[in-house]
Structures are given as structure tokens and as C-alpha cells.
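Action item from last week, closing it out:
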Amino acid sequence: MAFLIKGEPLSWEETEALAGHIREHGIKQFINLMKTMKQRKYEELKWGDEIEYLLFKFDHENKRVYLHCNANQYLEKLAEHNCNFENPVAFVAEFGAFQIESTPKRPFLDDFEELNNVIRDMRHRRKALKLLMDSKTETVLTLTNFPRLGCPDFCWPPYKPSPDGSLSQSLFFPDECINSKPRYPYMTKNTRLRRGKKVEINVPIYKDKNTPSPFIEFPDVPAAKPDHVYMDATGFGFGCCCLQMTFQACNLDEAKVLYDQLAIVTPIMMALSAAAPIYRGYLCEVDCRWNVISACTDDRTYEEINNPGEDRARTSRYCTINSFLCSDKFSDVNLPYNKEIYQTLLDANVELENIDDLMAKHIAHLFIRDPLLAFSNRIELNDETDADHFEIIQSTNWQNIRFKPPPPGSDIGWRVELRTMETQITDFENAAFVSFCILLSRAMASFKCNFYIPLSLVQINMERAQKRNAVLEEKFYFRKNIQCCTCDCDCDCEPDIVEMTIDEIINGNDQFPGICKIIRAYINNMDLEFVTATRISSYISLVQKRASGELMTTASWIRQFVIKHPLYKHDSVVSEEMTYDLLVECSEITNGKSCVELFGNLRETSDHNNKHFRRDSYKTSDNIISPVFDAAGLEW
């Protein structure tokens, strides 16, 4: 949620009245953007990560921990002190008053040695935040969600919910916990007003031996389902944190291919990074945040949900994509789109020749949505130099993968954003997942991999990926013949699609080489320094061992911590003291304590090799790559 505009937000009634104007000029801005970028190609390959942090305040005497709603104060201090840091950092506000988003100050380049800089940059960002904190009572953690978000007294200062307030009207989530930057409170309020009622979030509860059956908390609340944990505010979804990646492609065509191919692996990466098994103080039957955010952003009216038409959204704003950008053959799910906008884009393509049928439908699909907010000073714009109206709709379609055109007047290129991964406890784990994804994207391009499966199967994979212990207990649709012609070719090649475990998808089986073998084959063609090679090897090993079950996912580790806690009564309840102990443990692991269940000795080995390597003892001719990576090659 990084598209921020300064200005005075309009009311929902004013925004709704301007919806047609914003859509019309948003499309004009997109067409002008495509016209400007028509001749632009061969951009430098760049990439970067985005990490969201949770801020905490500890009361060690009473064994309590709270979400600390002082993000804006920290952001002000960071802006003031940033120029004094040895390496400046980039921080921005997020939805929660207890959240901060960070990115590298500059994007990483297409250079293997840059993979050494990922963990350094992440550690530097965390250190910059912690320098501003009281080390005894405050800290910052990369947790996907706070287990007791929405429970009584979960935040500091101790704000109370306002069921009759003007924003969320939540039974659990105080409006003061929403960041005061105008985008967030207005988006919260307008989602509720457009929908006509509060959002409804129901997550199946984990049934332990002492969990009431049926589990019913709110018999007088019709929206609360039996055997589910009920939540009723946008903050329950946007109060979660994620680990996202943005890839800048060489040109438009490469960006579209990258968009399609990465979309297929998004469920796999979500299951591998699963880190959110607790909601509103209860263990749940899910490991991921995705459907929680999906429910909290569903602004459809009763009529739209129950009587969807050809030009009406059939899902929440937070969903899996409904079409590929390069292949119509595998786009087998219903795609509602604005027919008028679609025709406008096709008409523009007669001159531009870079808005084909699939791109036109993609944009026309995004623009079936109403804008959720508008700003009084950003209504009448120059459509040739501004893109605010386009972005105000584009940026509130939160899908598993996002296609991002270059901003007008910048040197930024065509980008693709991978959005399903969950934040991990340590910088080592986050760096491993980021590095794994960039290596996968480069290996896919190098070997011209074809991961295409029908989008309906990707959507099934997304649902399976969120289930408890999905990484070990679920199977996912995946393609075996991945070195085959791509897109809508004229050959007779048919996809050989089977259900595989994540272990088989990542590590391979008798019929499929596995994603990691593809990455290792790509790396073996490169001349890497020892430090880089060993660090990359530790990153890949972490993913491989998570896939095989040798190492636990963060969600499984958190669940095990709770179940083994001496205060746990096997009733699914995660108490205040249990939460305190969990977060103290997470903080200690972040600060260097070993955790063999999460990453074995991989973090320590990687750091040791990096610290003690003597560059003057290394020779480029030394054959150190093959021992580090399995050079067996690929058997397609």
C-alpha cells in the first residue's frame, strides 16, 4: 500500500460521484503512458524487497506485550536522522499505527554479488529502527501478525474500540490503531460505506481436545459463524505484515512473461513462508493471512455478491489474478471487465501496438472497481504527465501478482510485484526467500521455463496453500513438462499437469527435476566468489529443508510453541502471558539466539563464512562452485 497522495480526502459520497471521471481519466493516463513508453526497452534489470515491521512495547514485570501505536513518531525521527546514517534507509507509513514499511534505499542490480547485500541491507534497516527505541521495553519484529490483535488491551496506548465510531465501527479494533495518514482511515471508512455494512471475517478455529464444540462466541451477531474466529475490521487484514518483491524487467514483453510465470508459483511461496496461525487470541485452522486480508477488503454490496454480472467483480479486491498477460489458453476463469474501457484500449492499440487483447482485458478488469478514495487537490489533472487516477484504482486491486507500468517522467521500468510471501522472524530467513525468488526468476528466463497451468488450478492452489501445515500435508497442481513451448503456440504440446507435494515441486521426484535443481543448474553456469556461493547455497538449502519438512515453517513453529507452552489448556486460547513468552523468544531469535527448528545451523554457517573468508586466499580458478552446488545438471 505504498501509493500515498498528500491532500484533503473527499467524502465517500463525493468520491462515488467522481468514479466515472476517475475511471475515464485513469484510462487516458494509462494510454498516454503506453504511448510514451512505446519505444522504451532494454531497461537495466533491477529488483528489491519490501518488509513490513510490527512495533512492540513490553511490560516485563507483568509479562505483557502490546502493539505500540507510535509509528509516525518513529518515521519523523527516521526522517530527521536518516542523513546521519552511514547507509540511508527508506521507511514509509503502513496501515497500522503500529506498522512501518521498509525498502532498500536503492534497488539491487542484476549481479550475483548483490545477493550478499540483501541481508546486510535488511539488518541495517532493522538496526536503524531499533536505535530509536528503548532497548529494555521496545522492539521491532518481522512477524506476519500479532497473535492477540483485537483482544482487550492489545495496544499501547490502551485505546478502546468504537462500535459507533466513524471508521471501522469494530467491536475489537480501535480506530486509533489506524495510521492517521489520510489514505488509511478514509479507505477503511469508504470500504464499509460502499459495502453497506462492516466487513465480515471468519477464520476456522483449530479444534483442540478442550475447544468448545460448537465454538460460538457471539450468538447474537449474525455475521459470526460457528466454529470460526470472527473479526469485523479492515485492520485485521491490513494489520498483517508481508514480504514482497518487485522485479524490473528489460522490457514490456519480458515483464508480461515474468508476471504469468511467477503467478503460478505464488501459492507455493506462500505455503513455504506460512507464518500466521493465530487470530484474535485463538489458534486457527490456517497458517496464512491471505483470506483474512481478502475478507477485510471486500467492498462489494449485497447485490453485487449475490447477482454478479458480466461487468461486476466476483471477488474481493484482494484476490488471485483472473487472467494471464501472455496466454489466453490457460486463462480459464471468468473475467468480468468493463466493455467500454476494453474497446477504448483496443482502439488506442491501432496506433500504439502495445495494448493487445489480453492487456486490454487486464486493465478493463481492474477498472470495474470504484475508486476507494479521491483527493480534492488531485481531481483535474494533466493526463499526459500524471497517473494518479490510474494508480488510485490500480493500487487498490491487491492480487497475488501485480503488473506495474513505469511511472510517468521517471527512469523506472516495467515491473512485476510478487505479493504472497509472509514475513519471517529473522533477516536471514527473509533474505533467503527474497534471494530464492530472484534466482528463480532469472533461472526461468534463462531456461525459458513454461510453468503454465490453467488459472482455475492456480486459484485452487492458493486455497490449499493457506491450510494448516499445507507445506507437508497438501498437494498442488504443477506442470511436469516445463521446458516446453510457451504461451499460445501452434504446436500440439499439452501441459502434463499433476498434483505434487511442495517437497516434490521444490526438490523434485523421479518425473520432475524440482525448482531448486533448475536454480542450481543456472547458478553453475556463473563464476561466483566463495562467499557469494556459500551464502546462496544456505538460502537455497533453507527453502529445500522447509519444503521437505526437515525445517519447520514459521507458522508450524509458532503453533508448536503455543501447544507445548505450560499454560496452554488445549482449548485453542493463546493467553497474554503465552503471547509475551512467544514474542520474547522471537526477539531473542532475531538478536542471534539459535533456533534449529527454523533454520538449523544455516544462519550461523552463512555468517561465519562471510565473516572469516580471506579474499586474498581465494583464486578465481579454484573450483569451489561444484562442491557447493549439485552440478548434476537437469533432466527434463
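Closing note: The CA atoms of residues 7 and 349 lie 34 Å apart.
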